Amino acid sequence: SQLDRKDEAIKIFQDVLNLDPRYESAYIGLGNIHQEEGKMSLAAAEFARAVRFNPHSVAARNNYAVALVKLGNYVDALDETIRILKVQPDHNTSYRRLAKLLAHLHRFDEIITHLVEALKLFPEDAFLIHELGKAYDHTKEPELALKYLEKAHRILPEHRHIPLTLSKVLHDTGRIEEAIDKLTDIAHANLGDHGIWSNLLMLHQYTDKISREERFELHRTWAHHLEALTEPLLQGPLQESDRERPLRIGLVSADLCQHPVG
Questions:
Q1: Three-state SS at 229
Q2: How far, CA to CA in Å, does 255 sit from each of 40, 91, 178, 210, 231?
Q3: Cα dihedral sign for 253, 254, 255, 258?
Q4: CA distances to 12, 102, 136, 145, 252 from 6, in Å
Q5: Which residues contact 71 (CB under 8 A, 6 or more apart)?
Q6: For residue 262, what pLDDT is reported?
Q7: Euclidean distance between the first and the last CA atom of the chain, given in angstroms as a whole number
Q8: 185 CB-near residues (< 8 Å, 6+ apart)
Q9: Largest Cα–Cα distance in the chain?
Q10: CA atoms within 13 A on the CB side of 256
Q11: Cβ atoms within 10 Å of 214's Cβ, excluding its own
Q12: Which residue, among 172, 165, 168, 171, has the nearest Cα to 151 in the 3D structure?
């Protein structure tokens, strides 16, 4: 069984470490097993031992950083990620993690400093370009934000997060119709995406590009899909409850036009 194989692997790694307590790969192997089992504290401890015995191991530090992120220890995870980049400056995965960690810690100026350098190595990495655009948005530099967000969108036009961020900055700078166009391009291919549709319906309140009737039909399109998603959830006890019971409903638009449901 899979459990027996894991137990056998653990025993092999432990036997190896009895012979050579400095064998880095054995600690990484044990850490990976603990990680698969969801035992992140044990996994992090094994990865930390691997790092202690081989401080220059990118694999050991990368596994350790990932475990620290999963444990919610973002500051130490950031420190480990920076150490990786000192050992291997072209480690793409670490730049991606660095951007996310710095954003979580609201250190947007540092994101800009690191990612400007990273893009010299990875000029077509849409993820890094997107993160840099978001950082410029947070530092209130909309023109730079748009420069990088539009580049990321050109590289990955079907990616859902990029047009969402791009439409937000376009909206903030008064370019409402462009923001609508960016979301419209992906909305019908992502009917289940609450974020895209909520933003699209909201943006249509600020333009006369479409009529009230067309706006209503957009709401209806989303509502029909939402109904299809939620209908299975309404089977059973909810349907059998007292139909005379007053039902309290919040966040419902009275006109489905001026105040869309988000």
A1: helix
A2: 49, 52, 25, 16, 23
A3: negative
A4: 10, 36, 46, 48, 52
A5: 40, 41, 44
A6: 46
A7: 48
A8: 157, 163
A9: 77
A10: 12
A11: 10
A12: 165
CA-nearest of 102, 30, 92 to 67 is 30
Helix residue ranges per DSSP H, 20-160 = 24-36, 40-53, 58-70, 74-87, 92-104, 108-121, 126-138, 142-155
pLDDT of the chain along its 262 residues, tens only? 566 788 888 888 888 888 888 888 999 999 999 999 999 999 999 999 999 999 999 999 999 999 999 999 999 999 999 999 999 999 999 999 999 999 999 999 999 999 999 999 999 999 999 999 999 999 999 999 999 999 999 999 888 899 999 999 999 999 999 999 999 888 877 777 888 888 888 898 888 888 888 888 888 888 877 777 665 555 555 555 566 666 665 555 555 555 555 4
**Helix, strand, coil percent content, the chain, rounded in steps of 5:** 75, 0, 25
Hey, is 46 helix, strand or coil? helix
pLDDT value for 157: 87
Structure tokens at 151: 């580049």
How wide is the angle at C-alpha 137 spanned by C-alphas 84 and 86, nearest 5°?
10
**CA 183 – CA 176 distance, rounded (Å):** 11
Q: Provide CB contacts within 8 A for 219, sequence distance 6+.
A: 201, 256, 257, 260
C-alpha 252/C-alpha 262 separation (Å) is 9
Q: Tokens standing for 146?
A: 């748009």
The rounded distance, in Å, linking the Cα atoms of 114 and 104 is 15
Q: Quick check: 218 and 201 in contact, CB under 8 A?
A: yes
